[in-house]
Amino acid sequence: QIQRALRSLCIPLDRLHIMKGHMMQDMCKGLSRQTHAQAKVRMLPTYICSTPNGTEKGNFLVVELCQSQVRTLLVTLYGDGNMSPQMVYKIFDMPEGIRQGEGEALFDFIAHCVSRFLSDTTTPNTQSSEECLPLGFVFPFTCRQTQLDKAELLSWSKGFSCSGVVGKDVVQMLQSAINKQEVGSNGTDGRWLSPWRGWKSSQSAPGQLSHVEVVALMNDTVGTMMTCCTEGKPCEIAMVADKGSNCCFMAEAYLVETAEETSGRMCVNTEWGSFGDDGTLNDIFTPYDESVDEESCNPGEKRFEKLVGTLYLGEIVRHALIALTAEKAVFTGTDIAVLKEKGVLTIQHILDIINNEDGTTDVKRVLEVLGLQPSERDCGRVQQICRAVVGRAATLHAVGLAAILSYMCQTRDMETLMVNVGVDGELYKGYKRFGEILQSVSRLLSPECMATLLPSKDGSGRGAAMVTAVALRLAALRRAVDEVLGPLRLTRPDLEKVQALMRQEMERGLGKHTNATASVRMLPTYVSHTPDGSERGDFLALDLGGTNFRVLVVRVTGEGISMASEIYVIPSAIMQGTGEALFDHIVDCIMDFQTKQNLMTHTLPLGFTFSFPCQQVGLDKALLLTWTKGFTASGCVGQDVVQLLREAAQRKQHSGLKVVALLNDTVGTMMSCGYDDPKCEIGLIVGTGTNACYMEEMRNVGTVEGDEGRMCINMEWGAFGDNGCLDHIFTHFDRVVDESTINPGKQRFEKLISGMYLGEIVRQILLVMTERQLLFQGRASAKLQTKNIFQTKFLSTIEVSNGLALRQIRSIVNELELEASFEDCVLLREVCQTVSLRAAQLCAAGLAAVVEKIRENRSLNQLSISVGVDGTLYKLHPCFSQNLQMTLKELAPNCDVSFHLSEDGSGKGAALVAAVASR
Ligand code: ADP
Ligand code: MG
User: Fold this and answer.
1) pTM for the complete prediction?
2) Which range has the worst mean pLDDT, 553-557, 598-602, 909-913?
3) Which architecture, in CATH terms, is 1-11+277-412?
4) Which residues place a Cβ less than 5 A from the ion ligand 2?
5) What is the Cα–Cα distance from 440 to 419, expressed in whole angstroms?
6) CATH fold for the domain made of 486-503+724-901
7) Which residues form the Hexokinase C-terminal domain (predicted)?
């Protein structure tokens, strides 16, 4: 029988694995918004989003509500890695009956303890009387927390049942009680208050608490975690193995769906004592566990806690002994009536029995004191049972720990996890083998994780001071960060203003007389129709001015468009040589291509995508206004580009070249998307630079004769703001970036939006934040000081949706030779998000002006239109397109705008412009 009993208390390894899996599932359930309400493992958010980093300093007050005491503690931190905090504490016994009395009385008593403590405590006179004294409140009951300083009590436990507290914000209740103390101190009631000394010697009012502010509320488990944090060794899990059992850990904040916080990490209070309340643990319960549960005040609840909490271990042993006595396996022939009484076997008895390594003399003594008459054999067997029960409790703690370890490892996207675990509680301290079992079993169950146990030295009090200190440090950091990033955050009115200004500049660009001074040039393109699908034929196309120079042959049929292309290099000697050499080279490439494609004998119409600003005077006549993107070929500016190409063909005696159209890449993009969607009447580029085109009514185009029909307008919106109209939104960072470019003062709108500049803006912000000690511990690497070292594609990597791509961020940070903490990574991401969000919003404001103008042109209440888009930033950034579309919806609610990615817009578009022209 003994062997059977021992076996039933011993859980096989495969079963432990299954339990760990269940625990992980339940944790996910508790964190998910949908399933949170039914979850047994509650996974309560604590709003504690960081662990101490050692820079915390100042005085912090803690008040801890315990079973029958109130503990007050004053901790002074010196910003020295929290190595030597100074602590003063005092313990107050709670008056009888207060636990079942009125809530108000309980909080008044707590406030009174605070007041007494402060008046008895002399502290460093560095404390100025105006400074607020922050207070952390340790309140070990189940609360629904919605902020660090806002927590609604869900239910009392541990013998507390004060009236009028459940459902109320306990932080508020404590703060009111504290404020009341102050009033009392000024009035006649001085009974509880001693004269004020020390801290505020300049003030004579006794027991003044007006400077005490409750800034954080936490559970004891969380306090333990914080206590165990020492410099360079963050502690991210804490376990309290005591009367009850609980555990908390730092989870990725975005996974804590019940809290709004999404960046960084947040400490989650698992409340794992209720694990198994849905039946998950039924197959490991022994008849003894069932008896304990039935006799408890909350049968069916807290099933895990009842297997592992010290409140229950004695009871489990007691029921086992009763059963085994009935089976005549122990205490044969003696009276065990004493065992019938609930609670006679305490955890202390059990620990005394099992900690006696050699022999059974202590066992005998303990049992005899209880009034039993054990034989030698009974002593051995009782000891075995006790060891099995307590060993099982340690093993089950290890299962829970393993679940948390694996969960953390998985959600942090790591192959291995090293983590420190703070441990406290009667069982941990009293049972010698607890730590050893915890470590070895969790290692078996989660071999990918390595947990280091840190015993908590000062209980939860010091930790509570840390939480409070961290909260204040974070609040200060937040204020400083907001100050830096504030100017980059655009409000709805800001964006509306940009939209209105864009609209104004568009009108000026279109006006015959205002065009010359408008910052948005609004260049006519002589493209007057978008494709209607009836286009047919074979075309040649050239694409110059994007990332590559290409020659293409494009076949447009009833079935769709097919093409072949070749990329040609333009050596920089040619880019920066003479115009003749450049265009000779282009014709050579065309001839090479035609030879390869067997097209030498065909004369195909040619469309030329030429992505530089041109003053177009006809579809096949365009004067180059200026070179950009590294081109400087001489003798071209002011010339007709098509003519330059034709002359080169003549020089090369290539007679089969028929250039019918020259177009900008925005137009090509619009046309290629227009082939599939007739509603596509806008083209947008967000790549190295940014630009847009759209179909305008001829009657509005003052710079071209004629009022009939429409014409595509190449806005050249990158230059928006070059006349100073956007000066109010430029930040310090934008000015620095602009000044370091080859064209300061030019393309000001583009410099807020496009790929060539976003990385550089981020870099400037990082430099300022580092200088202000907000990042990288104030140390910027030499690399970070290098221009253009921070590439725009880094923004895409860093901002990747859902969670923190920590590994990728780390590799970028390493590449830049920076030392980044986890919090640095979170802040780095916030900087990137701010910059890319602003870019997308500004782009949306520009587009809003365009779609609203089109809607008004056509006198529609509602416009339905499509935009063809190209550009790597738009295509590859994880949030740019979404932010752009969302903002556009807000700014132009009467326009229903859809976006199509253009595929090879320059090539296809050139052919289609040629085709539409021939049609
Ligand atoms: P172009 O505008 O010259 O035709 P692209 O459309 O390819 O060229 O855009 C190039 C720009 O895209 C570069 O400025 C680069 O910084 C940016 N870029 C490249 N990769 C990414 C990425 N993954 N995420 C965001 N931007 C990127
Ligand atoms: Mg391009």
Assistant:
1) 0.76
2) 598-602
3) 3-Layer(aba) Sandwich (3.40)
4) 546, 687
5) 15
6) Hexokinase; domain 1 (3.40.367)
7) 237-470, 681-916
